[in-house]
Design brief:
Structural class: alpha+beta
Mean pLDDT: 81
Number of strands: 5
Distance between the termini: 35 Å
Low-confidence stretches: 1-11, 13-18
Strand order of the largest sheet: 3-5-4
Radius of gyration: 18 Å
Strand content: 15-25%
Length: 139
């Protein structure tokens, strides 16, 4: 038996005031564990910093260390977590490993959250200085 929950959400794409009904399936316990694992992987600010850097394109570990200001062992540990969750892919070239975002839904989720915070914090954009850049980013 498939059950659904009806939820009203505001659609920023149709218009700021338009509402649409969305039906979401009730997930099994196993499916919720998978979703929970994905959110846990995304709940760390360091991993978000790495993902934000990788949104600019593929990087090797050394480039991630330089652009994030983190130590190499820290970057590597977080890359392992993100790969294990299926968020990143890894490509070896010689003695270097290159990482890129495998799951584009993560980029979309990042954009949605930044846009939501931008709307909520519009009076104090110092808290999220790059938020306006997400608008029109095609994400």
């Amino acid at each position: 038996m498939h059950m659904h929950i009806d939820i009203e959400i505001k659609s920023e794409y149709a218009s700021a005031m338009a509402k649409q009904r969305v039906r979401y399936p009730i997930l099994s316990g196993q499916a919720l564990e998978l979703v929970s694992g994905r959110f846990r992987a995304l709940a760390d600010p360091t991993r978000l910093r790495i993902l934000n850097t990788l949104m600019q394109g593929e990087c090797c570990v050394g480039d991630l260390v330089e652009s994030t200001g983190l130590e190499q062992p820290c970057v590597s540990r977080h890359l392992i977590t993100l790969r294990r969750e299926g968020i990143l892919s890894r490509r070896a070239e010689g003695n270097r490993a290159y990482y890129s975002i495998e799951d584009a839904t993560v980029t979309h989720l990042f954009s949605l959250v930044c846009n939501g915070l931008s709307d909520r914090l519009s009076d104090d954009l110092d808290a999220l200085p790059d938020a306006r850049g997400w608008r029109g980013a095609g994400i």
